[in-house]
Amino acid sequence: MTSEIALVLLILCVAIVLFASERIRVDVISMMVLLTLLFTGLLTIEEAFSGFSSPAVITVWAIYIVSAGLMYTGIADFLGRRIMKVSGTEEWRLIMVIMVTVGVMSAFMNNIGATAVLLPAVIAIGREVNIPASKLLIPLAFGSLLGGVTTLIGTPPNLLVSQALGAAGYEPFSLFDYTPMGLIIMTSSIAYMVLIGRHLLPDRQSEEDEDLVQEYHLRDYMTEFKVLPDSPLVGLTLVETRLGEEHGLNVVGIVRDERVRVGIMPDEQIKSDDLLLVTGALEKILAPEESLGVAINPDFQLEDTDLKSPESTIGEIVVSQKADFIGQTLEEINFRKRFNLTVLAMWHQETAIVDRIGHAPIRLGDTLLVHGRREQLQSLRQVPDFLVLGPVSAAINTESRRTNKAPYAIAIFLLMIGLVTTGTVHIAAASVLAAILMVLTGCLNMDEAYRSIEWQSVFLIAGMLPMGIAMANTGTAEYLSDMIIGLVGGYGPQAIMIGLFILTTLITEFMSNAAAAVLVAPIAISSAVQLGIAPHAFVMGVGIAASNSFLFPIGHQASVLVYGPGNYRFFDYTKVGLPLTLLIWVLLIIFLPIFWPFY
Q1: Measured on CA atoms in the order 542, 543, 546, 547, is the torsion positive or negative?
Q2: Rounded mean pLDDT, 355-382
Q3: What pLDDT digit, counting tens, does each position of 59-69 carry?
Q4: Phi, psi for residue 302 in degrees, rounded to 5
Q5: In whole angstroms, what is the distance from residue 454 CA to residue 475 CA?
Q6: What would the mean pLDDT of 502-522 be, rounded to a whole number?
Q7: Does residue 252 contact residue 342 with C-beta atoms inside 8 Å?
Q8: Which 3-state string (H, E, C) describes 449-518?
Q9: For the chain, how big is the Rg over CA atoms in Å?
Q10: Using CA atoms in the order 174, 178, 180, 183, what is the torsion angle rounded to 10 degrees?
């Protein structure tokens, strides 16, 4: 092993550890990898930054814009409404329809976008037919991943491994080359989920609005203060009381004359006999009783009716992939003033956070329990940072959609598919043309187009592509392929395929599926070259395995997005995902050599 190979492997190992730790953003890690490869002399400056001009990267961001055009014109909502009309009330049928619907959407738009569009509707439908969200949301996320492997543009790994083929001098995949294998995997996986997988899913009944107080354990952190006549708070506004800064208490509302006042009340003066609804840790609630001149109601038992009135209500919102404040705290983004709502609690992974909630970093998929005016909560449906959970009629809200532009969006989409299918233009050119036409026809404006691009993914891919170049240039890919061949090569190409599937599946659970595809594709091609066989079966298998993120919730953003709303535990995914992963491996071993012969 040369020093260059050792250095590349060291950089690769450090990157994987950083990806797995989640201490640093994935796009920052990829830029660190890029710069390290450049400054160590492993790549030239042209090679280091070639990822930003890569046709695969260009196609990825263009497809994000095209996907947004389909959403802004209501086409994705239309597909969501179809679920309600054909799903019925039976669990198995609802799971099947959800997975087929999101799978079809994911074949031509980004997976997490398809999941986000349908998430509120699926939860609402589940509540209407009394099926817990925990039985529906893993199928939703898994269905988006399965649909993504059916076309070249369905998911970034498909594009990236195809580009790796072209860079190695082989014919890259066309738009529908993945379709036969992808449809076999998708239909078999849906059958597995309907017949077996759904029985492995947890049965955690999602709580309706009237039980949200109990679900988030608010009774342990909320009480009622009665303002006494001699209280120093009398005459002060809520801002002037400094209850938050000095006492760690959050005033949710003021009850006066049997009417609850909520929202942002900076100029609301406190009066004698007012009842303050406050949240905070138990010791914070008990400590200031005498100094503030308030009396704690010892018999106060918080009910949802205490937080509701004709003007106000409580509701749940999920942090979406479009949020630009992920990693920041509620205090840092000034949530209360920015959205005119109060966050009562936050559901993060398996934990309800109520105490010092303002200091908790916000993550993708976190569910916030908010309180405020009904119109303010409804207005969040127009904010792409959040997915508002509620009734079906509200969850699929088309008021803000430009449905009159839907024919243009459909025509543009079909034009892109036609150009790519017939080979008239390269897929990158066709997707950019479609993206520009979406803007020119008014399906979305330029600001919306920029916002629709998941720049974190774009920079991640652009930063990791040079690692693939370094692995090829230094012989690292050949070195690793030699190891795989040495271990299982004696058992034939199928055994090497299994090794590549296992390697890719494990890597993709701890880092981006795009990064996993970039890293393993050169190894797959090098292995095929050394065996003297065509590399297409190996490479397509790597692309599909990179999207095979079913073992843990951290494997893909779609799985992260449904984690909180589904009230899942970490290994819920493993219980249902491990048999699915093994099934997909078997299907790949059987059918890939048929569609893409080794010789």
Answers
A1: negative
A2: 79
A3: 989 988 998 88
A4: -65, 130
A5: 33
A6: 85
A7: yes
A8: HHHHCCHHHHHHHHHHHHHHHHHHHHCHHHHHHHHHHHHHHHHCHHHHHHHHHHHHHHHHCCCCHHHHHH
A9: 26
A10: -140
Please provide the average confidence, as pLDDT, over all residues in the chain: 82
Residue 280, CA distances (Å) to 165, 422, 574 in order: 57, 63, 36
Alpha-carbon distance of 229 to 141, in angstroms, equals 55
Cα–Cα distance measured from residue 132 to residue 153, given in angstroms and rounded to the nearest whole number: 33
Which residues have a Cβ under 8 Å from the Cβ of 469 and sit 6 or more positions away? 43, 47, 50
Better pLDDT: 72 or 224: 72
Q: Which two tokens stand for residue 317?
A: 């919102």
Query: Cα–Cα distance between 235 and 213 in angstroms, integer?
Result: 31
- 8 A C-beta contact, residue 275 and residue 225: yes
185 residue type, one letter: I
Residues 6+ apart with CB under 8 A from 486: none
Return the pLDDT at 209: 43
For residue 402, give Cα distances in angstroms to 374, 387, 453, 482.
24, 19, 19, 55
Is residue 289 predicted with pLDDT exceeding 50? yes
Between β-strands 342-348 and 351-353, what pairing exists: parallel, antiparallel or unpaired?
antiparallel
Which whole-number Å values give the CA distances from 98 to 33, 196, 555, 560, in the listed order?
39, 16, 21, 18
**DSSP state for residue 546 in the 8-state scheme:** H
DSSP 567-594: T--TTHHHHHHHHHHHHHHHHHHHHHHH
Structure confidence by residue, pLDDT tens digits, 471-506: 888 888 888 888 888 887 777 888 898 889 988 988
3-state secondary structure (DSSP) of residue 73? coil
The per-residue b/e assignment along 246-281, b for 16 or more CB within 10 angstroms, e otherwise, is ebbbbbbbbbbeeebbbbbeeebebeeebbbbbbbe
Q: Determine the 3-state secondary structure of 35 from DSSP.
A: helix
Cβ burial of 136 (10 Å; 0-12, 13-18, 19+) is buried
Which pTM does this prediction carry? 0.77
Task: Report how far residue 433's alpha carbon sits from residue 437's, in angstroms, rounded to the nearest whole number.
Answer: 6
Instruction: Look at residues 172, 149, 187 and name the one whose alpha carbon lies nearest to residue 548.
Output: 149
As beta bridge partners, residue 576 has none
Over residues 198-255, the pLDDT tens digits come to 999 998 764 444 455 556 655 556 677 777 887 887 877 776 777 766 666 777 677 7
pLDDT value of position 357: 74
